[in-house]
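Reading a protein record of the kind used here takes only a little practice. To see the layout at work, look at the sequence and tokens printed below.
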Amino acid sequence: MSTRIIVSYDDTDNDRDALALGRLLAFSGAELSLAYVRHSQGGALEEAEAEKLLAHGAESVGAPDMPRHVVVNPGTSVGLAELATAEGADVIVFGSEYRTAPGTVKPGIPAHKLLLGGPAAIAVAPAGMRDNPSVSVNKIGVIDEGDPAARATAASLAAALGAEVVERAGAGHIDLLVVGSRPESPEGKVTLSAASDYAVETASFPVLVVTRGRPVEFAPIGSEPTGGPAEPAVA
């Protein structure tokens, strides 16, 4: 089964950043979908509006048939966690918080909550990534927290994107950072250490935080870099 990526999307600029990152991660051929969490049952009009904004997001990247999910839950993070579990999703992608300075990363409240025990890897796009959707990834940094899953994920993503994995410390410029969950995190859950949380909050590039003990396979682990991206699968 291919890797599944869910983008949290409400058609704001910051979530367009998330969609740009989702497409980048899905170049391996992963299945990409959009999700919007409604906080009340509402009615047919509210449901139609939610469907409309998701459709607009899909059309904006030339994938009108991309799977879309409207979830009803009082909490965005809870709704996305339940959807990820039900869909067997590997990654949930967020944009940075509203009014984040361009080129910097700041997880919003839903992302923060899922970084405290979420069931899937969490990716956060820097503000303004939507303005450079064809950004290339040549160097992937990694902070593994002693968990082989983070390093395996970085290697797999590097193979899918034709990039190389470098040590974060002293690596100079990197294009994306993969972070492992701390040793006390239960297997299959995301939990950041204080040091890794600081690394995420001060990043100027996309960040992917991996669940403990479960690597995300963007390409078969151990495969060689492809030298170029494939198109993302959207169905």
User: Anything to note?
Assistant: The first strand starts at residue 4 and ends at 8. The first helix runs from residue 13 to 25. The radius of gyration is 16 Å. The beta strands are 4-8, 31-38, 68-72, 91-94, 121-124, 139-143, 164-167, 176-179, 207-209.
